[in-house]
Design a protein that fits this description.
single chain, 244 residues, alpha/beta, Metallo-beta-lactamase, Chain A, seven-stranded mixed sheet, 5 helices, 19% helix, globular, binds zinc ion
């Protein structure tokens, strides 16, 4: 039996770069498939990875457009191509009102308070608020079996948040690293150095960097994250699959 997987649908920070896509991921366990964040470009890439009918739910971290607007394309697909059941969408308060499909029966919206827990199929989802401005939820997925494991996702956050709020010893941590230390303190995002340091403090096993601005050097972000973390670090890439 294959293990739990994370598939990257898009990993560009704040806007999609040339040929890229903004934030979006597929989280797959033994019997559950969840689309986590639906940034621009990710629904196109999702359809190369799975039949959207297989989705058990969509989880949206916050209302910034680079994290959710492709839910609109998905809703159009659901209307036109058809899906028998409404798709559950877990999102912070206020996001539903921004969607053209906030009252459409193709989507079943659930407000995610913070902290809170939800169970989607065989995944236990624990949500905590980050340091980012609009209500933003980081999430930890725990697979309840038969394959076990834990996957954390920071969503977007500044440094006044900590991975430990999701738990310590997370197997695979998908953490934003938007820029290098040169920009620390200017925005509510993390540098590679800050992401690496935060992951080390939380005793993460493996660190996966995402949400880098297309204008920022991938190798510089990776180098400072690796130096601060002291363990395995990789940069997320579209279509890449990671076991967790
Ligand atoms: Zn973002």
């Amino acid at each position: 039996m294959p293990g739990n997987q994370l598939v990257v649908l898009g990993c560009d920070g704040s806007y999609p770069g040339p040929g890229g896509a903004a934030s979006g991921y597929l989280v797959r366990s033994a019997s559950t498939l969840v689309w986590v964040d639906a940034g621009p470009g990710t629904f196109a890439n999702l359809q190369r990875q799975c039949d959207p009918r297989q989705l058990d739910a969509v989880v949206l971290s916050h209302e910034h457009p680079d994290h959710w607007t492709d839910i609109e394309s998905f809703a159009v697909w659901a209307r036109q191509v058809g899906r028998q059941q409404p798709t559950p969408v877990y999102a912070p308060r206020g996001l539903r009102e921004r969607s053209y499909f906030g009252k459409d029966p193709v989507l079943a919206w659930h407000v995610v308070e913070s902290p809170s827990e939800a169970q989607i199929g065989d995944l236990r989802c624990s949500f905590v608020a980050t340091d980012h401005g609009p209500p933003t939820n980081a999430v930890c997925f725990e697979a309840l079996g038969p394959t076990t494991g834990s996957l954390g996702y920071s969503a977007d956050t500044g440094p006044d948040w900590a991975i430990e709020q999701l738990g310590t010893g997370i197997g695979l941590m998908l953490c934003e690293a938007t820029y290098t230390r040169v920009d620390e303190g200017r925005y509510r995002h993390l540098s590679g150095r800050q992401a690496g340091s935060m992951a080390a403090t939380a005793a993460v096993s493996r660190l996966l960097l995402t949400h880098r601005w297309p204008s920022v050097s991938a190798s510089e972000v990776l180098a400072e994250a690796a130096a601060a973390f002291g363990g395995p670090v990789v940069q997320a890439a579209i279509d890449a699959t990671y076991e967790w």
